[in-house]
């Protein structure tokens, strides 16, 4: 028998959905009938329960309680770190705001201090009746600058003497005052809030009875007993 080419084999596939003999519906290959569940793949279930390692070694089984405890611990650590960073940032903001306000206050006080001699000249001109015309306009603007900086003048005749606010340059006595009093203001004082920028220069008047008591050595104006004399008896 001589060699000859092998003839191609013809394959006939029956793709009819209805079986011509029984009349039932055929199910195509690879499909599952409706209402049925595919068979479980043992290999697939095993891979879903235990994940194989990349190098083909034995898979690692993680305990759920241990993993949950690690997550809770890490969450607590991150929360503590966040709270610490938040507190540090809040303290930093407070320090920055305090330093910024301090710089602003110092600049305002330095500028106001440079205006004090001008204000003294304005007050002397006011006392002599020379604060008129254009000079008065300029004086009002200078005083307005002090008001804008929050600086106020203090020191008026009749104020009780306060060493923290007044600088006494003159002293006299009078029976018209009951406590040491600033009777004459030689130079105004200035303060900004609770901070005194310049004390007021004043003349202080003291009560006469205090001076008499200190001179006699006995308080309240009583006459001290003479040597050799006993206490007075009724």
Helices and strands, with pairings:
Blueprint: H1 42-49, H2 64-127, H3 133-148, E1 151-154, E2 159-160, E3 166-174, E4 181-187, E5 189-192, E6 195-198, E7 200-207, H4 208-216
Parallel strand pairs: 3-7
Antiparallel strand pairs: 1-5, 2-4, 4-7, 5-6
Explain how this protein is built.
By secondary structure, the protein is α+β, with helices and mostly antiparallel strands. It has a domain of 73 residues: Head domain of nucleotide exchange factor GrpE (Nucleotide Exchange Factor Grpe, Chain A, domain 2, Roll). Helices cover 41% and strands 16% of the residues. The chain is built from 4 helices and 7 strands; from the N terminus they run αααβββββββα. Strands 2-4-7-3 form a 4-stranded mixed sheet. It has a 3-stranded antiparallel sheet with strand order 1-5-6. The longest helix has 64 residues. The C terminus is likely disordered.
């Amino acid at each position: 028998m001589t060699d000859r080419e092998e003839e191609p084999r013809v394959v006939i596939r029956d793709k009819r959905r209805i079986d011509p003999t029984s009349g039932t519906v055929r199910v195509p290959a690879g499909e599952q009938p409706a209402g049925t569940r595919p068979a479980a793949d043992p290999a697939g279930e095993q891979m879903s329960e235990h994940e194989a390692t990349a190098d083909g070694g034995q898979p690692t089984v993680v305990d759920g309680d241990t993993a949950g405890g690690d997550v809770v611990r890490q969450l607590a650590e991150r929360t503590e770190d966040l709270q610490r960073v938040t507190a540090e940032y809040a303290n930093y903001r407070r320090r920055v705001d305090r330093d910024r306000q301090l710089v602003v206050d110092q600049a305002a006080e330095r500028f106001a201090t440079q205006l004090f001699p001008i204000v003294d000249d304005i007050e002397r001109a006011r006392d002599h009746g020379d604060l008129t015309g254009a000079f008065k306009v300029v004086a009002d603007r200078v005083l307005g600058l002090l008001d804008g900086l929050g600086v106020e003048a203090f020191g008026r005749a009749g104020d009780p003497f306060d060493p923290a606010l007044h600088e006494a340059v003159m002293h006299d006595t009078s029976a018209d005052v009951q406590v040491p009093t600033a009777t004459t203001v030689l130079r105004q004082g200035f303060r900004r809030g609770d901070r005194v920028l310049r004390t007021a220069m004043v003349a202080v008047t003291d009560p006469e009875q205090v001076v008499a008591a200190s001179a006699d050595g006995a308080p309240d104006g009583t006459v001290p007993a003479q040597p050799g004399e006993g206490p007075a008896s009724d």
